[in-house]
Design brief:
This protein is mostly helical. The protein contains 15 helices and no strands. Helix 4 packs across helix 5.
Length: 238
């Protein structure tokens, strides 16, 4: 990680290091992801990851930005200890507020909509959705995201997508965002409740939810309707 910080952002070494971070933070490796993530935070590597996600890169570096996003979403996933996730979110927020991270992530929901990649995790806006889900799970970042112009409009557009995976990811992000009253009010103001009501019976389980079978998560708790129901109940509570 220290070497990762020393290399110029726009260099092949940094791009390759981003790919390594993606791999070592993945849950399916022998090395526990939580150990790698803690080291990433302790060594200050989150700042470099955020820079990769926000700076203007040449075409040769675009995949590195996606690697950085997936590594960051891994670092805030449910496979990582909650206390460590909070430290990651704090580091991302401190670095991200200096380089307009939150608005840039929301903008990428449109900019990368037609991007293609052979790897499912890097295809289209999937890297962005992973980061949004992680950040939306934590208070201060959730509020920063919800305050961005177009955030809820973009997520609601995705909720109407023919792509099951995108609907599922958008539902998960929205479910976390509306946990906060300010976000819930913004969501209602753009007609979000009407969209969710149309999807409350969508019991589709996307490919990414299938892996939860190993964790003995009931199928109903892995569906789009599950997140939609929670979001509707939360908005109603507020």
């Amino acid at each position: 990680v220290r070497a990762f910080q020393r290399w110029p952002i726009k260099s092949a070494s940094t791009y390759n290091a981003a790919a390594v971070l993606w791999n070592v933070t993945a849950r399916n490796l022998a090395m526990p992801a939580v150990d790698v993530v803690a080291q990433l935070v302790d060594a200050g590597g989150v700042v470099t990851v955020v820079k990769l996600m926000t700076c203007k890169l040449p075409p040769s570096g675009m995949r590195a930005a996606k690697y950085a996003m997936v590594a960051l979403s891994n670092a805030m996933s449910k496979g990582v200890e909650y206390a460590v996730c909070k430290r990651v979110e704090h580091a991302v927020r401190v670095a991200g507020l200096k380089c307009d991270l939150y608005s840039k992530l929301v903008a990428l929901l449109d900019t990368w909509a037609d991007e293609t990649d052979a790897h499912a995790q890097l295809n289209g806006i999937m890297p962005v959705m992973g980061v949004l889900w992680g950040l939306a799970s934590h208070g201060k970042s959730a509020l920063h995201l919800g305050s961005q112009p177009g955030c809820f409009h973009s997520l609601l557009r995705l909720m109407s997508s023919d792509d099951v995976e995108l609907r599922y990811q958008a539902a998960g992000v929205l479910c976390n965002l509306v946990n906060f009253r300010e976000n819930s009010d913004r969501f209602e103001a753009v007609g979000g409740v009407d969209v969710l009501k149309r999807l409350k019976d969508d019991n589709t389980v996307p490919p990414s939810g299938a892996g939860d079978e190993e964790l003995e998560v009931p199928e109903d708790d892995r569906s789009i309707a599950y997140f939609v129901g929670i979001a509707l109940d939360t908005v109603d509570y507020w």
